[in-house]
């Protein structure tokens, strides 16, 4: 079939961001306010949290086990809650092309319910690409939350296609003694910025080089542990350095098997400048397989770079759960 360009049908992408538990629902609210182009769904045992969450769908799980409250950090309860209402979740998710699940891994709802939800989704939709963005709790939150995160991660790695881990403590190392609310807000901002750039770079509109969804799928599928950084600067190369500096995982970018580099820049940015960042990534950090996108926006005053480096090694995570590759499918 031959079309004139204005007649060419656009293949839209159906992307779902699923926030699970208090932390996940909070991210979803941020994304809702920023009008990101995705279906936003929040799932929680806690109706008080859900009542202040903004999303396209709000799903309460586990009324029988939790009676509308949180699990109080109990992973087993979180899982039971998800088992009780898995049909509601599957029905709301439908059949998207990509699902990004977000949660704070220290809680009972996030760490207990999410691995079960992801494995059920994969059973009914084997082609669905599922990425998880999970926060490791601050040390000051106590050992129980850290243990929950260990269990959650161990269960998520075999079922998710990729998992981005942010260690909240690294935020404190970098920015000193932030008050708790500010610290959470900084992690929330990183996650919201990352998801927003990712979704915008799939859109050919305004893109000088958009990220083809199929290339994205081959880049991330089965890529295991990922680190993520988001940085801004007038110069793209410096924005990349800032993104690397802002990562919240103790992983060396040189350990990455591949990388996704998404640049958003003011109109008029040259392709050469964007290529400099790409070159820096391959020459300085020896990343061989890089998928990149460049988008310009008349409203931007400076450039931003999102870097997701996949298949990285992190000492903390390996000390906690052993060799990551052994846990992958
Ligand atoms: N970034 C961010 N992290 C949060 C926020 N709230 C909680 N967290 C983190 O997420 C972890 C889990 O907390 P919640 O999301 O409240 O827990 P939950 O999944 O709702 O589980 P329960 O309440 O125990 O049933 C915490 O240990 C924190 O590290 C938030 O608003 N922003
Ligand atoms: Mg909760």
Written overview of the protein:
The chain has 329 residues and is α/β, with parallel strands linked by helices. The protein has a domain at 15-160: Tubulin/FtsZ, GTPase domain (Rossmann fold, 3-Layer(aba) Sandwich), CATH 3.40.50.1440. The protein has 14 helices and 11 strands. An 11-stranded mixed β-sheet has the order 3-2-1-4-5-6-8-11-9-10-7, sandwiched between helices. Helix 6 links the parallel strand 4 (98-104) and strand 5 (129-136). Helix 1 (21-33) packs across helix 9, helix 4 (75-84) packs parallel to helix 6 (108-124) and helix 11 (236-245) runs parallel beside helix 12. The longest helix is centred in the middle third of the chain and has 22 residues, at 180-201. The radius of gyration is 19 Å and the shape is globular. It starts with 14 loop residues before the first strand and ends with a helix. The model has no long low-confidence stretch (mean pLDDT 90). It binds guanosine-5'-triphosphate and magnesium ion. Residues 21-22, 46, 49, 70, 107, 109 line the site of magnesium ion. Magnesium ion is lined by residues 21-22, 46, 49, 70, 107, 109.
């Amino acid at each position: 079939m031959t079309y004139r360009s204005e007649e060419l049908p656009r293949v839209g992408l159906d992307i779902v961001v699923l926030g699970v538990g208090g932390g996940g629902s909070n991210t979803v609210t941020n994304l809702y306010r920023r009008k990101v182009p995705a279906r936003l769904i929040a799932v929680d045992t806690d109706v008080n949290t859900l009542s202040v969450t903004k999303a396209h769908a709000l799903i309460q799980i586990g009324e029988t086990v939790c009676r509308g409250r949180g699990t109080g950090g109990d992973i087993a309860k979180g899982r039971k809650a998800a088992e009780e209402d898995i049909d509601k979740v599957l029905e709301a998710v439908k059949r998207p092309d990509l699902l990004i699940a977000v949660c704070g891994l220290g809680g009972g709802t996030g760490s207990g319910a999410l691995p079960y939800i992801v494995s059920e989704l994969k059973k009914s939709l084997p082609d669905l690409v599922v990425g998880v963005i999970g926060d490791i709790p601050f040390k000051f939150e106590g050992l129980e939350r850290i243990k929950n995160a260990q269990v959650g991660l161990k269960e998520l790695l075999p079922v998710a296609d990729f998992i981005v881990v942010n260690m909240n403590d690294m935020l404190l190392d970098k920015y000193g003694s932030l008050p708790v609310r500010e610290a959470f807000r900084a992690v929330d901002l990183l996650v919201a910025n990352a998801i927003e750039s990712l979704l915008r770079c799939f859109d050919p509109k305004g893109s000088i080089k958009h990220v083809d969804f199929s290339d994205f799928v081959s880049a991330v599928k089965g890529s295991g542990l990922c680190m993520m950084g988001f940085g801004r600067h007038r110069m793209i190369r410096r924005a990349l350095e800032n993104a690397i500096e802002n990562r919240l995982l103790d992983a060396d970018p040189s350990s990455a098997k591949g990388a996704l580099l998404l640049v958003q820049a003011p109109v008029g940015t040259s392709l050469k400048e964007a290529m400099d960042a790409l070159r820096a990534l391959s020459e300085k950090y020896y990343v061989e397989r890089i998928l990149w996108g460049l988008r310009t926006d008349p409203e931007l005053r400076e450039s931003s770079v999102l870097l997701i480096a996949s298949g990285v090694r992190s000492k903390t995570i390996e000390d906690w759960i052993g060799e990551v590759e052994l846990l992958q499918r």
